[in-house]
Design goal:
- This is PepSY-associated TM helix domain-containing protein.
- Keywords: Membrane, Transmembrane, Transmembrane helix.
- It is a single chain.
- The chain has 208 residues and is of the alpha+beta class.
- Among the domains are: 60 residues, no CATH class; 85 residues, no CATH class.
- It contains six helices and six strands; from the N terminus they run H-E-H-E-H-E-E-E-E-H-H-H.
- A six-stranded antiparallel sheet has the order 1-6-5-4-3-2, with no helix packed on it.
- Helix 1 crosses helix 4 and helix 1 crosses helix 5.
- The protein starts with a helix and ends with a helix.
- The relative contact order is 0.14.
- The model has no long low-confidence stretch (mean pLDDT 92).
Length: 208
């Protein structure tokens, strides 16, 4: 009478763990491939040649938009007025809306970092001259910045958190499944132990 619940519970947990394991692995698949590839590119960055492409443009801010920049805000860092940012974004594809710019008596400077490159623009408050420069370091740099979460925005930050949680579920359910199957697979724990010992030994002996 008492021998039946244990196999049933084991079957239930096996089914549940397998379900969570494959769901989390499916969610992690693309992210893990991306992070594995970019782990290689980051670790071997000195061997990967990257040529930055720099684009420079000079335009004139219309008088109506220039008038909106005076008087300057009380604080030294503040976003550009909406109409000015809209004109810059339409003209230069600058993605300046909502970004904090540095205001001085004669110039506005706006840094526009982005994944895989960089950009900046300056506005001369006397003449309305706008200088814009954009640097594109290529798709490998773009993917590396995705790996690091560098200048990738809020949506990608949320993705990284969700991806990390899915990886934890994938790893922990895999560990429990290893435990449940370890009785029939004698190499299970030696292999797990090897996966723990190797990075620990490398870190202790070769990282100073």
């Amino acid at each position: 009478m008492d021998s039946q619940p244990t196999p049933r519970r084991r079957a239930y947990w096996l089914k549940t763990l397998h379900q969570w394991h494959w769901i989390s692995s499916a969610l992690c698949l693309l992210g893990m491939l991306l992070f594995a590839v970019t782990g290689l590119t980051l670790n071997n960055a000195s061997h990967i040649e990257a040529k930055a492409v720099v684009t420079s443009r000079q335009v004139q801010l219309p008088a109506a938009e220039l008038a909106q920049l005076s008087p300057p805000p009380a604080q030294k860092k503040a976003p550009l007025p909406a109409a000015v940012a809209r004109w810059l974004d339409d003209t230069l594809d600058a993605a300046s809306a909502g970004r904090a710019a540095e205001w001085s008596p004669d110039e506005i400077y706006l840094s526009l970092p982005r994944a895989g490159g960089d950009a900046w623009l300056s506005i001369d408050l006397a003449s309305g001259d706008v200088e814009y420069e954009r640097t594109d370091r290529g798709w490998i740099s773009y993917l590396n910045d995705l790996h690091k979460g560098r200048n990738t925005g809020l949506a990608w930050s949320w993705f990284l958190d969700i991806f990390a949680a899915a990886c934890l579920v994938f790893s922990l359910t895999g560990l429990v499944l290893l435990k449940m199957h370890a009785g029939n697979r004698s190499a299970t724990w030696p292999m797990v132990g090897l996966g723990v010992v190797i990075p620990v030994v490398l870190a202790l002996l070769f990282i100073h």
